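anyone seen this seq b4? input:
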Amino acid sequence: MSPRELANRPAERLTPLVLICLTAFLFLFPLCVGKPGMPLTYKADEPAYFLMALSLIQDGDLECNLEDRRRAVDEFPHLPAENTIVMTDDGWRTTYFGKPYLFSMAAAPLTNWFGADGMMAFNVLLLMAMVGMGTSYLRRYNSEGLAALFATGFFIVSGLFVYVFWLHPEVFMATGVCACLYFGLVEPEPRPRLEGWWHRLGSFSRRPAVRLAVSASALAAATYHKPMLAVMGVPVLWALGRERRWKAIATWLLAAVIAMGAFGGIAVAFTGHPSAYLGVQRTGIRIANPDAVPLAPQSEAELERLKTNKSWSWLWRLPEFKLHKTLGSLGSFLWGRHTGFIPYMPFAVLAIILFLVNGARDGTRWTVIASAAALALFFLVWIPFNWHGGAGFVGNRYFVTAYPAFLFLVTRVRPSWSLVPAFAFGGALLGVLVFHPLGSPVREPTLQSHVRGRAFKLFPTEKTIHNSIPGYSGVVIDHVWFRGRKDVMVVRGEEMLFYGNLAAQVWMVHPQPIEEPVLFEVRSQAADNEVTLSVGDDTVVVPFTAEDPDDDVQIVELQPSDPELFRPVRIVPDDEPPSYLYQLTVHPRTGKVHRENGRVKDRYFLGAGVRYLGPRRKVYADEAFQVEWLACEAPSTVATGEEFRVETRLRNAGNLRWNRFGLTRVALSYHWYRDGEVAVFEGSRTALPATLEPGEEGGALMLVEAPRVPGTYVLKVDVVREAVAWFSSRNGENFCEATVEIASPS
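predicted toks r here
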């Protein structure tokens, strides 16, 4: 064929070849990923799904035994298999895998041949099957090339694509939803007459009853994993009911019941229960030593008490609905930085726009939107603390299973150039997931490390579920919670360490509005450094010019303003008042390799150490410097220059904690007086025996050095809050005194 003839060849004849080539490329990619490694270990609930597939095909059962634990370590030997979900009904005498088995059973052949890579390759086939169904549906309204382009972008430029490379059933469930709507709503296309068994197979597959049975069975498979997905069958039943096809509705419902019965019956044959969530005790185990037994048998009484703790009973319980929390979570659901519908499903947004422009009068498609909205509200209301997918998620791991439904809102893709912003938007936000589906090689990597990119800064962080977002570290100081990204902030005790030349944003979560200036303690390991701190509209630049910057500790005063009111969602319902959120920004201009005790520590470039001291009035108030002396025993005579011991005991009578460590630690010290005048003001320090809360007491054996000149002296034992003040300067010179005769050495 000449180049001119090839150029004039209809695009429709090339589209299937393009999709086949793309399928081959994506299918072989995971099969060639190096193992062990890439990724280094399991995430979320992967161990159970992966080990179930191997157990089904190699052992013919779903029992978790010693051989299964060895397989877990064989595939991923670098790190333990965390959170392997298992179940029992006999007090852990027999242990089964505690997850639905359908996805693992479907992926078992490829998993047996290629291990974890084979399970990912199976997900690729499911993804491309959805691309094929999407293309077949859209070409009824568009050219085949445009239909394939939209369907390919829809499924690949999305948060769903990253789950192809998880050993998880999200793509499996999404395929069930897609097949349900495709076979339930889309009439088969007329095809050229084929010969032989191809003709018989094609004729059979185009029968309405067969297509409805496939639709119902596919959704039943997804629903077996997540029962709430049953709502995605409403558009099919609505369409059939609108046409008064009552027999078709009966066929669909009967097929769904038969499929669910078959799935439950197979589960009973393997485990004695129709589902991993009914009538069993479930837990997550850590597989580090494959030869160790992680669970001990329990008594029948203990089993009876615990066996329904992890059941599906929460599906029909009445939730504790709170409108303000639901609305806050709804905003995060729509445009949150880690979970948002808009950033992770740009083609779904385009699909909704095209539907409103080209087909807003279609009642069936409105039921598609209503079903997806009902599913989203179910997650937001029934599990408000976990609607996004728990500790393991990219985007919204739960809602991504319903994502294919939005494809069926589209009819004509007009104008065709509307695909350009969808691809561009997806490239800016999701390109890193497409090109690094196994995880980005970054410092402090997490499943959510992609949100550190520039484009994601346009979207807000989810305030109501910030406890559930990995990749952050935090510390509570004086009832204020500070939380920031691990790649820019390291927590050491009550001190926050920030990297040099990076602007770190930290949440300050306070139980009440901050109405007065607050103090921060700032230090730098790098000379000639400059640290900028800001909260709201108040900004302070702290210069460090000392030769030894470790000795340069500065107190910074900031006035927080304009807090954001929010109510965090917790697992245990509560009636706690709202919290007030302030954003603290710390930006060291430079830094230095961090050292502790002369050794390089963690190899990070430390720019500044920051510690919250509290409200200015509270830190400097006289009430913070109150001490009650309980004992102070010193010798009556010592030699000049002699070091001797003084036994002390004291109580924190103030309103602030006495920290034993830190830049503003509280320590014991002393002054020497002679004839009413100060002879030695700055005595050596003695650490407290422990950090003392208000009202607590402790004792310490002080080491004191005698003056060099003989005479009668008064030893005044004092307490000092480093970098702030001596206690005696704030409490009316409340010393612990002893008269000591300093004698010349004999």
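The first strand starts at residue 81 and ends at 88. Confidence is low (pLDDT under 50) at residues 1-8. kinda curious what u guys think
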